[in-house]
Specification:
The protein has about 100 residues and is mainly α. The protein contains five helices and two strands; from the N terminus they run αβαααβα. The model has no long low-confidence stretch (mean pLDDT about 90).
Length: about 100
């Protein structure tokens, strides 16, 4: 049963709509890496200045709300990798939490 931080829109998983049926761990990790960017290296590694919306996402603990921010920044399907400038700022815990939530 998902915990309060890994629940995706209740138990129906609608927040994860758009990642398809392939929940193999390798594919889910690729999806997560295409949605998030480690905020402290966005500028030096990718030349990207995060917007305040993208940067403030590091404080979001609720995974469904994090995905809502992802969609607000770039509304393409979740399984389509975004360019670094269209990803949402995150730290290690968000990468892990989102991966777990999508695997459920």
């Amino acid at each position: 049963m998902p915990g309060r931080f890994t629940r995706l829109d209740g138990d129906d998983g609608s927040a994860a709509a758009g990642i398809g049926d392939d929940r193999e761990i390798r594919r889910v990790v690729e999806i997560v890496q295409g949605l998030l960017i480690y905020d402290t290296v966005a500028q030096p590694f990718y030349g990207v200045e995060l917007t305040s919306t993208q940067a403030d996402a590091i404080h979001e603990r609720d995974t469904a709300r994090l995905l809502a921010i992802v969609r607000a920044v770039d509304d393409r399907p979740l399984d389509e990798a975004r360019p670094p400038a269209s990803r949402v700022g995150a730290r290690c815990h968000a990468f892990s939490r989102l991966t777990v939530a999508l695997l459920r």
